[in-house]
Structure formats: structure tokens, C-alpha cells
């Protein structure tokens, strides 16, 4: 009986440690430069179909913007997609966001890379490689199942693909950085410096 109680205590300790870790991650989120601009950013996104977000590495663009959209209710209208140019970065960022949100990777938050899909039908925030994004676009040209797409490092995407996504997508598209997007579409630029 003592071992069962100890097991329960260990499980409770694990739950407490998970809660403490999540709280610590929430504190880290609040310290990121982009957090100070959160409300303004959401308003700009609400007001425009396309928004360019420019910020230094580590400012929180890739991890925080999709979470802000999630918290603002964008998943009620469809999934949120976030592109990454490389598979390892895609998996790493998805794992970090799942930790920050306190959810199991592959459930609310998942990733899809060339030979691995860690999502299921109820996943609402999906990090994906550019190649997977292209495949999604080819299978669903209007991207109707998405409410928003956050396209990071769009210099790696084909300008024609980006133009097609912009033309056909009725949700929101948040490309980075500003100089590239301003060549192809007219949209506001939002800056976050760290």
C-alpha cells in the first residue's frame, strides 16, 4: 500500500513540477520583446488580411504570434498554420509552443515535416515546413481549413507561391520580413525589436 501511495505522490509531484514549469515558461513569454506589442499586433491582424512582422531573432515572432492568435480565438474559424524552412526547426518550435501552452505535442499543437506528421484531426496550431505548406496549398488552393497562416522566413518561399497564397487565401497571412512582402503586395509592416 505504501508503494501505491508513493506512486500517487510521485505522480502528484510530477503534476506540480509540470505546473511550475508551465508557469515559468509563461513568465519567460512575458519577457519576450514582442509581448509588449501583443494587443496592438492582434488589432493590426484583425484589421488587415496581410501583416508583415519584422523582428530580431529571439524576439518571439515564431513562438508567440501563433499563440496570440490562438488565445484571440482564431482557431474558432479554422486551423493556424506556421511555416518553418527546415524540419528540425519545425519540430523544435512546435515542441516549445506545446510546452508553453501546457499541452501534449501532437494534440492542440503539432507539426508536419516531410516524412513525419505529428498532428491529428483536432490539432489547431500546426507548424510545418515550407514543402508541407506547398503540399497543403496544392491540395486545398483556398486554404479554407485555415483561419491564419504565419509564414516565417518567407525569403525561402517562391514569390509566386506567396502571391498565390495571398490572392486565394481569405484568412490571414503574416509573412516576414517587410522588404520582401512590400515588393509583391501592399500591406502594413509591424516591427518588434529585441
Automatic annotation (TrEMBL):
PANTHER family recorded: ATP-DEPENDENT RNA HELICASE (PTHR18934), PRE-MRNA-SPLICING FACTOR ATP-DEPENDENT RNA HELICASE DHX16 (PTHR18934:SF83)
Q: Spell out the protein name for this chain.
A: Helicase ATP-binding domain-containing protein
Output the InterPro entries linked to this UniProt entry: P-loop_NTPase
- MF-aspect GO terms: RNA binding; RNA helicase activity
Question: Can you list the GO cellular component terms from the UniProt entry?
Answer: catalytic step 2 spliceosome
* Reaction catalysis annotation: ATP + H2O = ADP + phosphate + H(+)
